[in-house]
Amino acid sequence: MSLHAGETRDQLTQNIDIFPTILDYHNVPCSNPVTGLSWKDTLENNADMERKGVIYGWFGKTVNVTDGEYTYFRAPVRKDNQPLNRYFLMPTILSFHKYPEKEFFANATIGNFLPYTDYPVIRSKCDNNNALFPNNLHDNQLYNIKTDYQQEQNIVVSEKESEYISLLKDVMLQADTPLEQFDRLGI
């Protein structure tokens, strides 16, 4: 029987934490810098995670941040949703049964564009990319998820928005977000 069976934790975690957690449990040092944090001390001792918030979202849509109490959705400030770029070495698309069309590589350049690596990558401009969520792509939203879990009362017009814009910016900087994303979101 597990020592902590049936216990729960209330810390902010992300999928990027799995890799450093596995390394930590096997006492293997990480040879490259990673953004994720190990869950080991949290799982074993209910220790706090050392983060103010986590970002999440869907490529080319709103960029979202939560601190566990509020969640904030920051929309692009321009209707053309630009600047928006893909960064890759191996081109992939949602369908695994076909290759990208040549337009996927239009305006593609190779270079050292990402701050967290010296390895060159391909940068390709992405179109508007709002076909999946065209109705709310340009709406900022803020919800208190402790009191409004179903996110029915958008309180984006409150004084809290500036606090969450600042949190979003901080977390994006910690994640080495490409600089054009700050321009796209108007922060």
Number of strands: 7
How many domain units? 3
Proportion of strand residues: 15-25%
Tell me the number of helical segments per DSSP (H or I, 4 or more residues long): 4
Low-pLDDT runs of 5+ residues are none
Rg over CA atoms, rounded to whole Å, is 19 Å
Order of helices and strands: HHEEEEEEEHH
Q: Could you describe the 3D structure shown?
A:
With 187 residues, the chain is α+β, with helices and mostly antiparallel strands. It has 3 domains: 1-51, no CATH class; 53-84 and 140-187, Arylsulfatase, C-terminal domain (2-Layer Sandwich), CATH 3.30.1120; 86-125, no CATH class. 19% of the residues lie in helices and 16% in strands. It contains 4 helices and 7 strands; from the N terminus they run ααβββββββαα. The chain has helices at residues 18-25, 40-45, 160-174, 180-185, and strands spanning 54-57, 63-66, 70-74, 85-88, 109-111, 121-125, 141-144. The strands form 2 sheets. A 4-stranded antiparallel sheet has the order 1-2-3-7, covered by helices on one side. A 3-stranded antiparallel sheet has the order 4-6-5, with no helix packed on it. A hairpin with a 5-residue loop joins β1 (54-57) and β2. The chain starts with 17 loop residues before the first helix and ends with a helix. The model has no long low-confidence stretch (mean pLDDT 87).
Key terms for this structure?
globular, alpha+beta, Arylsulfatase, C-terminal domain, 3 domains, 3-stranded antiparallel beta sheet, 187 residues, 4-stranded antiparallel beta sheet
